[in-house]
Structures are given as structure tokens and as C-alpha cells.
Amino acid sequence: MSHMIKHDVPDDNEIHIEKKFVPKDLDIDKDVSWAQINKDVLRSLDRPRPIFWVIFFAAMALFSFGVYCEKYQYDNGLGVADLNNPQVWGLYIATFIFWIGMGHSGTLLSALLHIIHADWRKPIYRYAEAMTTFSLLTAALFVLIHLGRVWQFYYVVAYPNERWVWPNFSSPLVWDATAIGTYLTSSLLFLYTGMVPDLAICRDNATGARKKLYTFMSLGWQGTDRQWATFRVTYMTLACFLMPLAVSVHSIVSTDFAVSQNPGWHITSFPPYFVAGALYSGCSVIITLFILLRYVFRFEAYMTMPILNKLIKMTFAIAMVWNYLNLIEYSTVWYGANEIAKQQLLDKMTGTYAPVFWGMVFCSTVMPFTLLIKFVRTHLPTLMVVSIILNFGMWLERIQIITPTFGHSQYPWTWTSGWWPSWVQFGIVAGSFGWFTMLFMLYCKIFPTISMYEVKEMVHDQSKMLKAKGVA
Amino acid sequence: MKSYLLALYNNMEEAGLVLDELNNTKLPGFSMKDVVIKSPIEHPELSEKLGKRPVYVQLFTLVGVLFGPITGLTLVASAQASFIYQIRGGRPVVPIPPDMVLTYEFFILSGVLMTVIGCFIGWKLPGNRSPLYNTRVSEDKIGILVKAEDTSIPVINEIFKKHHSLEILGEEKK
Amino acid sequence: MSLNNLIKNWTSFRSRRPYLDQYKNADYKWAMVIDLDACTGCNACTTACYAENNLPVVGKERYEKGHAMHWLRIERYWGEGESVPVDMVPDRGAQFLPMMCQQCEAAPCEVVCPVGATHHSADGLNTQVYNRCVGSRYCSANCPYKVRYFNWWQYADTAWPNPLELQLNPDVSVRSKGVMEKCTFCVQRLRESMDHAKTDGRLVRDGEVTTACAQACPTSAITFGNLANPQSQVAKKWKNQQIALEKDEQKKDENLRGYRIFEEFRTYPSVVYLERVRDLEA
Which residues of C touch B82 (CB under 8 A)? Predict the structure, then answer.
């Protein structure tokens, strides 16, 4: 579309105008053609290189080990996880919160930025949404894994039965099940609906079995004006539903703790604190995946540095929100009258789990400040390490929410120290990473990770804007 | 007897000119209602030339957001009320605050589901295959599909060609 | 059907518990009084509980991992006395506290169970339905007393090797792995005596039924009975100690020893402890 912005104006004038009106850095190269976008993105769906299979089978091996651990636990009881009487939840619930938290930024990036028309989301929201869906699927696994009688998990679901027995709707766990079910359904539909035009592109360029799959999934999309108009309304409506939904889901997860009486959990600021933490860890994963996809699929033209820069700014802002809420939580406990909670806080900072606590402080409070350094923002390998450290810090955060509270709750007789998860717990946690990696890798090779039609829109809008300003 | 004709254009400006000309041409057995644009991206400026084509998705959403919370709250509250003696934690049998949480989730779930259903109905999908399609439409070309009486087809064909159409499908069908 | 229930009984569904004179017209409200002054920490109650309720003995290794199943545990605290090095125990100053499920009227565990496996019965017991339990352990997480015990292993396989299974109480189920359990106030005994009384067309008389721990206590430190019957031992002791079930803060005379643990959490426990009196000069 480059020819559109060439006009018969004197050169010096054009330079002057560009200085005055054109933004310093465009999010995406304005000269990239629509056909090129199709070609570049579809190339990522080509037959994978051998290294793909190496990583895939490594992830599968990790997952298989997790399955083995789960089977071992299923057969022998939860005792093999070394959970015990005060420490009833351990890594399972901590990692559950971790995964479900990761699943929030995809929605933020996609829905919120769509609502406020922040166009830089367009090349990167698709994989973020896929990540949301898969991390929700992973989180749902942990709900099952931590149950003592996983074979009876359907008791939590409100299904009609002849005995008129229902779940306890007052329990935050039932809210969890409802909220996660809603969120999984909605974010899957959001991902799918937003992908239909792209699936049509895949359909038009595929052969064989893939053609059948894409033909089925694209539902016969032809890009007619009526379809686009319906699509626009639908997508905006879904975004408006998804944004508050995402906030509600992690708030509800936080009520698992905030509704209970335990010191360190019974805190009013938990819902916003959890939401901020969720967005924080999710954004750092989005950065990690951004760098990986950009490198693996040669998406330099679409996942550009200006977009990454905006992403980093957003992550930093959210990190600061999270830090603020963290500080508020501790200081209200510290200056509050609840002696038990205060003791618990002290124990958290100085007791057995002090390394976890201070590790979190280092990874999630100190490390985000390195994002202020230009070298970190622009040197991708460094940035990737930093983003992984941030995320690791958020995992530690979830552990230090759960474990120290059990170790030091109201009743002094049950105070324990030195509790540590067994290899079964670590194995299942590792397996969950394998499961997520497997799903995400398969996704990347079956569905386009960049929204082609929206990048086209972006290029089109940018040309239009440049043209309008250039003429003016 | 009506036939279809699909022309491909390089960019929106050319397609816009074609639509203008079609708008100003009076032909027997042809109206702007029979014109469909097929394009790789949204094109509000082109759609305007087609006249008002309302979208009904919002109605489905409205039904969803009304139906969801009412049904959800009724189901939850009546399920709780079927346990008369099961007092839990000293709380009322039908406690309002937890039910609000669930009602909110039902509100969103039902809203989302109805919106998506409304969208599929609006798309007339799955299986809405209009007779003429070119895969280049999903790449970078703008397609204009016209349905008209056979006698008018040659005239439209001429209009298409006049504006530098890259390709016209359906010519041989007349 | 349930909607009819909802409309008809709306006010009773909306009431919070416990309220004043809640059990005034009820037949039963089981409660307990434990006199810590009489408790010698002999663990007879714990042993009796193990025998009565089919509790598995888990062995040293699992005990150290925190997998013990003692529904009723004797906690040992050191009160005022001479201070000694950490690895030694003082000669005197030990006090004991038998701790079991407090059968709270507003139990924190009941609210959070996702499947409603634990709920309140009409006679004021905090019940646990093993068949319904999915093992989320949320009840244990939310219990301030931490008196709920989870079946971390399939204890039934190992705890009673042949012929020890013959010692199992046939009135009590043997729990499988993955379910939560806790003190029931020996509900199997209560149900039996209530059934007998019903056959005779009367209420259970005071002293007719008692829990295994109360029965086994050599110093009679544990008193168990029906709080809804004002003539019962338990009701008299509660009254003498000026403790009301529905209050979360007891206004009472200074020299009284009765208290309930963690009243400030508004759990309204059914167990009253009588504080130990110590003669520091002796």
C-alpha cells in the first residue's frame, strides 16, 4: 500500500510534516504488503524442523513423568506428596494459582486493548489468547490433581440427580469451578471467533487433511460485508464480556483465601492483589513467548521492537501495581491489631520459608526495575532471562501465600516448620509445564499465531493515517 | 433467471468507484441489496455505500444477559432451598452474597454464548457458501459479488471492466 | 418442589445461627465440658477414641510426617515454671489440653466444603459425610483448631493386619483414602440411644449415652450430654460457668473457669473448657 502515501509535495515539506505529525516509531513497517503477511504467517505452519520434534518430545517426556507421578499418587493416596495435616495444599494449589494467573494477560491484552483501540495488540494478541486457554486447561488439571478422591470430582458440578444433592454454593471452590468453566468457555469462543477469518485464509492455502480441518473450522467464511459487520459487533461485545470476567475469575480465586479465617489470607485487598499478580505473571510470559516466536518463526516484521517496548512498559506498570498492593497488604497487617496475623507475617519473612519470601522479593520486586535499563529492553536474550525470572518470582509468590500460612496459623499446637514438598509434587508441577508446552507447540503448528487480517488492518490504518496527515 | 458475477479489485478506491457507479445505474432485476463485498479486512467506508445493513447480534446478547442471571439465580437458590435442615456454618440456607457471585458468572456465560450464537446466525454459518469465491479475496483483493437478472449481467460486466477489474468470475454462466 | 420450599420457608432459610434459645424447643443439642484441672494427660481418651472409631495407628514414620489420625489429641503445654534448656523438659508445669472437633455452631469448615460433605445436623452436630467427600481439604484449611484429619493413605490396607480387623467397631465405617474425617462425638452411640429412646417414646436420659473419651477418662474430666435438657450435667455446668451458646463474648463473674477456645472467631463451639487452677506457691 506504499504507493498511497506518495504525493506530489516538495521533499523538504514532506520531511517537515513527518517531523511534526508522524509518530516517532511506527508499530509495524508500513510497506509490508498484504500478500506478504499471508505468506509470512502461513510459513509458520509449514512442516516443522527436526528441532521442533526434539523439544516436543522433551515436553512430552516431562508430561509423561507428571502423569506417572499422578498415577503413583492416585494409587497410593495423597500421602506420597508429603502433604500433611496443617500443610494440606502445598504446591498443587500454589501452581494452580500460578497457571490460572498466567491465563489472565491474554484476555487483558486482547480484550482490554481491543476495547480502547490500542492497535499494537494486533500482531501479538493471538498467541497470548492461546496461552490463556492452555494455561487455563493446565490450571484445571491441578484442581483435579489436588483432590483426595479425584474419581468423584463431578460432585462439585451442579448436575441434576435423582437424590436432589447439590454442591454447596457457598463454597469458594464452587465459585472457582463456575468461574473457571465460564472463563474457559468464553476465552475459547473468543479465541475461535477471532480466528475464523484467519482460518479461512488457511483454508484457501491448504491442501489435503489440513484443508478439511480448516474448511470445517472456518465455517465457510468468505469475508462478506455482512459477515464483517456481524463480526465487528460480536468481537467487541465478547471483549466487553471478557474483561470483567477475567477480573472476576481471579478475584474469585483469591476468595478461596480471603473468605477463610487464616492469618495471611483473611485480607480484603486480596482480590485486586491477585488480579494484579495474575496480569504481572501473564505479561512476563507474553514477553517470553514474544521473543521465542519472533526468533523461531522470523516474525521480526510483525513482532517489532516498538510493540515489545509497549509490552514492557505495560508489564512494568503492572509490576508496580502489584508491588504497591503487596506493600499495602504487609503494612496493614503490620500496623493492624491482629496479633496472630502479625506473627504469621514475621514467620513468613524470617521462618522456614524466608528464602521463598525473599526470593519472591528479589525476582518480582527488584528485577522489574531492570526493565528501566535500555540494554535489557533491547537485548532480547537478556530480556528473555529477565521475563522468566519475573515469572519464577510470581510462582514463589503463590507458594509464600499458601505454605507459611499453613505452617503458622492460629492454633499454636499445629505450628510446623521445615515442611517441604516431595518429589511427587515437583514431578507433577514439572509435568504441567510439559503439558502446556506440548499444547502450545501443537497450536503454533496448526493455527496461525499472528492474526493476519488484523495485521492487514493495522497496515491499512497506518497508511491511511500517514496519508491523511501527509496531505494535511 | 438470475446469475452471479464476482469481480476482483486491487484496492478499496477502485472498488469504491465501482460501487458508486452501480449505485447510480438503474438496471432491470438488480438492486444494491444484491451486491456483496468480499474482502480480507473490515471496510466500513465501502460498506456505507451498500446502504444500511443492520446487525442483530445485540438482540441475542440482550436475551442472553437477561436469561442467564435470572435462570442462574433461580437454579442456585432453589437447589439450596431443597436442603431445609442443612445449615452450613451458621449461614442462612439461601445466602445472598455467594449467590450474587454465581449469578454474575451465569450473566457472563449466558451473554457470551448467546452473542456467539447470534454471530453464527448473523454469518449464516456454517455452510453458507455463496456461489462465487476466489481465494485471493482472503489474501489482498477486494471482491464485488453481484446478483442480477441475466439481461443486466453484460452491463454490469462492462462496469466492472471499466474500473480495471483484475478478474471477473461467472461470466460464462450466462 | 424445591421452589415451593423456598417460597414457603423463606424466613427460616434466611436466619443466621446460632440465635438466642435456638435449642429451647429442640430435643437434643449435644455438648461437652472438659475440666482441665482434672485432666492428667494420661491419653486414655485418645486410646478409647482409636478403639471406638476405627482410627488407624499410622506408625512412627508416618506420624513424623504429620499423617496421624488422632481425632482426639492431648496437647501438652508448659505453663509457669522454671525455665530449662530447649532440649529438656521442666520437672513441673505441664498442662494438658484434650483437643477434638469443637462441633462449632457456626463452623468455618461447613461453609467452604464444595460438595456439602460437612454440614450441621438438627441436634447440633457438625457432621461429615464420607461418601460425599471429594477430599479438597478446604475444611481443614479453614478450621482454626486444625482438628480435621485427612486419609493420606489407604490405611485400611495396613493398619489392621489379620486378625486385628476383628477389633474394628462394626457400627463405624472404615474410611478410604482421600476423605476427610474428624471427631463425631461418637455419633453412632448417639444415634443408637436416640433410637432406643424413640422406641420407648421418651428422650434420651442424662448419662444414658456418653462418648468413648468421656467413658474412658479415669478422672471424669470429660462431661458429655444434652444441652437442650436443662437438667443435664452439661447444661448445668454451662449455666454455672455462665456460658451461652449463642454469644461470642461471655460476660461473667471473675472467678469462673469456663471458656471456649477461639470464641473471637465466632465459631460458637460446643465444647467448654474449665481452666486449670495452679498453685504457684506450692
Answer: 1-2, 5
Q: Hunting for cell 526434539 — which residue is that?
A: A54
Residue A26: helix, strand or coil by DSSP? coil
Chain C interface mutation, best of A164, A253, A401, A414, highest count of C Cβ atoms under 10 Å: A414
- Give dist(CA A319, CA A150) in Å, integer: 36
Question: Do residues A107 and A187 lie in contact, with contact meaning Cβ atoms separated by under 8 Å?
Answer: yes
**Which chain C residue's Cα is nearest to A93?**
C136
Taking CB atoms and an 8 Å cutoff, what residues of chain A touch C142?
A: 260-262
Which chain A residues are Cβ-neighbours of C176 within 8 angstroms? Answer: 149
CB burial class (10 A; 0-12, 13-18, 19+) of residue B165? buried
Answer yes or no: pTM beyond 0.85. Answer: yes
Instruction: Give residue A241's pLDDT band: very low, low, confident or very high (50, 70, 90).
Output: very high
Report d(CA B124, CA B115) in Å as an integer: 14
Map residue B140 onto helix, strand or coil. coil
Cα separation, A390 vs A357, whole angstroms? 14
pLDDT at B132: 78
Which residues lie closer than 8 Å to B145 by C-beta, 6 or more apart? A224, B4, B5, B6, B35, B36, B37, B38, B130, B132
DSSP C218-265: TT--EEEEETTSTTSHHHHHHHHTT--TT-SS----TT--EE-TTGGG
Instruction: State the Cα–Cα distance between residues C153 and C160, nearest whole angstrom.
Output: 14
Which segment, A234-238, A304-308, A452-456, B25-29, is predicted with the most confidence on average?
A234-238
Residue A365 DSSP code? I
Distance CA A279, CA A467 (A): 36
Task: Determine contact: B117 vs chain C, CB below 8 A.
Answer: no
Asked if B18 and B7 count as a contact pair (C-beta separation under 8 A), the reply is: yes
Looking at the complex, does the CB of residue A164 fall below 8 Å from at least one CB of chain B?
Answer: yes
Confidence class of residue A24 from pLDDT cuts 50, 70 and 90?
low
Q: Which of C10, C15, C120 sits opposite B86 (nearest CB)?
A: C120
Interchain CB distance below 8 Å, B90 and C16: yes
For cell 454471530, the residue is B119
Q: Searching chain C, which residue's CA lies closest to the CA of residue B98?
A: C111
Interface probe with C: pick from B88, B91, B99, most Cβ of C within 10 Å: B88
Verify whether the Cβ–Cβ distance C146 to A78 is below 8 Å: no
Asked which of A300-309, B110-119, C235-244 is least confident by mean pLDDT, the reply is A300-309
Identify the CA nearest to C215 among candidates C205, C224, C227, C228.
Answer: C224
Within C41-184, residue ranges assigned H as helices are 44-52, 60-64, 108-112, 138-142
Burial A267-292 (b: 16+ CB within 10 A, else e): beebbbbbbbbbbbbbbbbbbbbbbe
pLDDT in tens, A258-282: 998 888 898 889 999 999 999 999 9
Rounded Cα distance between A135 and A130, Å, is 8
For residue A7, what pLDDT band results from cuts at 50, 70 and 90? very low
> What are C71-126's pLDDT values in tens digits?
999 998 887 666 777 777 777 778 899 999 999 999 999 999 999 899 888 888 99
Radius of gyration, CA atoms only, chain B = 26
CB-based contacts of A191: which residues, under 8 Å, 6+ apart? A126, A129, A130, A132, A133
Task: Please list, in sequence order, all residues whose beta carbon lies within 8 angstroms of the beta carbon of residue C253, skipping any fewer than 6 positions away.
Answer: C242
Shortest CA distance from C182: residue in chain A: A85
Hey, is the C-beta of B101 within 8 angstroms of any chain C C-beta?
no
Chains interfacing with B (3 or more CB pairs < 8 Å): A, C
Neighbouring CB atoms inside 10 A of A57's CB total 12
Contact (CB, 8 A) for A402 and A43: no
Conformation bin of residue C124: beta by default, left when phi > 0, alpha when psi is -120 to 50? left
